[in-house]
Amino acid sequence: MHVHRFEKLWFGASLVLIVAFMGTIVYGAIGPGVAMVGDDGGTIDSTVVANGNFERADNFRAPGVYASSDGEGVEVYVVARQYLFNPGTAQPIEVPVGEEVTFHVTSADVTHGFYLAGTNVNTMVIPGQIARFDVTFEETGEYGIVCHEYCGSGHHTMAGQLHVVP
Ligand code: CUA
Question: Which of 74, 64, 68, 77 is nearest to 95 (CA)?
Answer without folding.
Answer: 74
